[in-house]
Write a structure and sequence with these properties.
Layout: H1 2-14, H2 17-22, H3 28-60, H4 65-74, H5 82-96, H6 103-118, H7 123-135, H8 137-151
Length: 154
C-alpha cells in the first residue's frame, strides 16, 4: 500500500499543476481541505468511540485496546459508528487511491459528510448522534470543527 501511495504521489508530482486542474483533478486546496475533513471526522469518531466505550464498560467492565477493536468491528452497540468509518475510508480512497480524485469526487464527499452530520438517513445513527451531541462536550467540539470545514468556500 505504501508503494502504491508513493507511485500515485510520483504520478501527481510529475504532472504540472495546471494540467491536473484543467483535467478536473483536485487542486491542492481541495486536497488539503479533504484531508482536513478526514482528520476532523477521525477526531469526531474517536470522541464518539470513547463515549461508547465508557457506556459499554459501565455494564461489562473494562476492556483492553484489542477487545475494544473487536467490539468496534463486531458488537451492535458500536455498529452505528461504522458509517463514519466508511466515510473516512472513502475519503482515504479519494486521497490515496489508484485513480486521481476529481472535483466531482470532492464535492460528493463533502456533501456526503455534511448530510451525515446534519440530516443522516440512517435512523439509528441519527438518534444516537443527536443524543451524543446533547451529552458529550467533546463530541460537540469535534462536530463543530468538522462543520466549519464543511462550510468553507470552495
Amino acid at each position: 500500500m505504501l508503494i502504491e501511495r508513493q507511485h500515485r504521489s510520483q504520478r501527481i508530482n510529475e504532472r504540472p499543476m495546471s494540467e491536473i486542474v484543467t483535467n478536473e483533478f483536485l487542486a491542492d486546496s481541495h486536497l488539503h481541505r479533504l484531508a482536513d475533513v478526514r482528520l476532523g471526522l477521525l477526531r469526531l469518531h474517536k470522541a464518539l468511540l470513547e463515549m461508547e466505550r465508557i457506556d459499554y464498560e459501565k455494564v461489562f467492565g473494562r476492556v483492553t485496546a484489542g477487545e475494544l477493536l473487536q467490539l468496534v468491528i463486531n458488537h451492535a452497540q458500536f455498529g452505528w459508528l461504522r458509517i463514519i468509518s466508511a466515510l473516512v475510508v472513502e475519503i482515504d480512497e479519494a486521497l490515496n487511491g489508484d485513480e486521481l480524485a476529481t472535483s466531482s469526487d470532492f464535492e460528493a464527499l463533502i456533501s456526503q459528510a455534511r448530510l451525515l452530520l446534519t440530516s443522516p438517513a440512517d435512523e439509528e445513527f441519527k438518534t444516537k448522534y443527536q443524543a451524543a451531541l446533547q451529552r458529550e462536550p467533546s463530541v460537540v467540539m469535534a462536530h463543530s470543527t468538522v462543520m466549519q470545514l464543511l462550510r468553507k468556500d470552495k
